[in-house]
Amino acid sequence: MNKTKYKQGNISIWNEIAPRYHKRWASINDGPFQSTSKLVQLMDLQKGYNVLDIACGTGVVTKKINEKIGSDGNVIGIDTSTTAIKIAKKWNGFKTNLDFVIMDAERFSFGVKFDAITCQYALFFFPDAQKALKNMRNNLKKYGKIGISVHGTKEKVPFFSSILDTVTEFIPDYIPSGTPDLDRFGTKSTLKNEIEKAGFSSIFVKSYVFKYSPGKFEDYWKNYLRYVAKPLKEKLDQLKNETRKELKENIRRNTLQYTKRNGIIEFPWEVLILTAKN
Ligand SMILES: C[S@@+](CC[C@H](N)C(=O)[O-])C[C@H]1O[C@@H](n2cnc3c(N)ncnc32)[C@H](O)[C@@H]1O
Questions:
Q1: How many CB atoms lie within 10 A of CB 81?
Q2: E strands present in 67-133
Q3: Checking DSSP bridges between strand 201-216 and strand 264-277, what pairing results, if any?
Q4: What is the mean pLDDT of residues 162-176?
Q5: 201-216 sheet: strands from edge to edge
Q6: Can you give the C-alpha Rg of the chain in angstroms?
Q7: pLDDT band at 178; cut points 50, 70, 90
Q8: pLDDT tens per residue across span 134-156
Q9: Of all helices (H) and strands (E), which one includes residue 150?
Q10: In angstroms, rounded to a whole number, what is the distance separating the alpha carbons of residues 186 and 126?
Q11: Residues 239/163, Cβ–Cβ less than 8 Å
Q12: Could you tell me the residue ranges of all domains in the chain?
């Protein structure tokens, strides 16, 4: 798959799922989204700072940044999804020191340099992560700080792998070939190396293991089907009834080790948060 095609596909997926993503995940500081306040805390943002939030989605990190920098500060959120940007604008309300703009992380450029740049749960979506990181450096003041959150590797995020490991066995092209590997920065060393390669220094990576409960197995599966992007749902819908039943049973088996006596699943969820300086 070429880069342009992947990006276009990703944009249409985010345009479709942004409202559901905001409602179920980003706007609720539960499970992995406990990272939003941790990331902002680690950034040591001062009143009056000029901050950029890359791949801001529906603006949850941007909002917290805005609260920290006060009325003398300024924050801009950029994202390639028009739907996400619309939600971000509505959810944050109008403020003279806050703006949301449609821009690609690999291509943006501003007339000013920022004191700090954040990027939560998106580095792994950029096909050319180095390009995006070098872009961050070019738009960051000398000694300015970046903060990046990513999910851990798939074994450390069984919420994803319990379903995806099995689904990709049944539907080998479920994730189209050429899609960047979404857990490629999921260890401290892979993440650190990538940031070092782009020329940043004073790099620190913290690992957090949050808990996330999707309810009982039936809730987990039902909600997966409800929230999954349309192209993936279509592939699941094409399975014959018998195959679908077998798939579901295999997924259920994967979740047993995380299921408590009362039937509630409780997944551990590793998140890495990196900070570094220009
Ligand atoms: C998992 S969401 C994270 C959103 C937000 N940072 C948060 O923590 O809720 C990933 C976001 O990355 C955006 N994205 C993907 N590729 C991008 C790119 N090349 N440039 C800018 N945004 C991109 C998507 O549109 C989506 O809003």
A1: 24
A2: 74-79, 98-102, 114-120
A3: antiparallel
A4: 92
A5: 98-102, 74-79, 50-54, 114-120, 140-151, 264-277, 201-216
A6: 19
A7: confident
A8: 999 999 999 999 999 999 999 99
A9: strand 140-151
A10: 14
A11: no
A12: 3-154+180-211+269-277
The residue contributing the CA closest to ligand 1 atom 8 is: 120
Contact 62, 119 (CB under 8 A): no
Using most ligand atoms within 8 A of CB, pick from 3, 5, 8, 14 the residue to mutate for ligand 1.
Answer: 14
**The pLDDT of residue 1:** 64
The residue to which tokens 């080998």 are assigned: 172
Protein residues with CB under 6 Å of any ligand 1 atom: 10, 14, 26, 55-57, 60-61, 79-81, 84, 104-106, 120-122, 125-126
Beta bridge mates, 99: 76
60-91: per-residue pLDDT in tens?
999 999 999 999 999 999 999 999 999 999 99
CA of 57 to the centre of ligand 1 (A): 5
Task: Write down the pLDDT at residue 104.
Answer: 97
Please tell me the CATH code under which domain 3-154+180-211+269-277 is placed: 3.40.50.150
Beta strands at 50-54 and 114-120: parallel, antiparallel or unpaired? parallel
More confidently predicted of 111 and 33: 33
- Whether the predicted pLDDT of 234 surpasses 70: yes
- The amino acid sitting at 267 is F
pTM, two decimal places = 0.96
The confidence score (pLDDT) of residue 137 equals: 97
pLDDT score of 177 more than 90: no
In the chain, what percentage of residues exceed pLDDT 70?
100
Q: Which ranges of the chain would DSSP assign to H, the alpha helix?
A: 3-21, 35-42, 60-69, 82-92, 129-138, 158-170, 188-197, 217-227, 230-237, 241-255
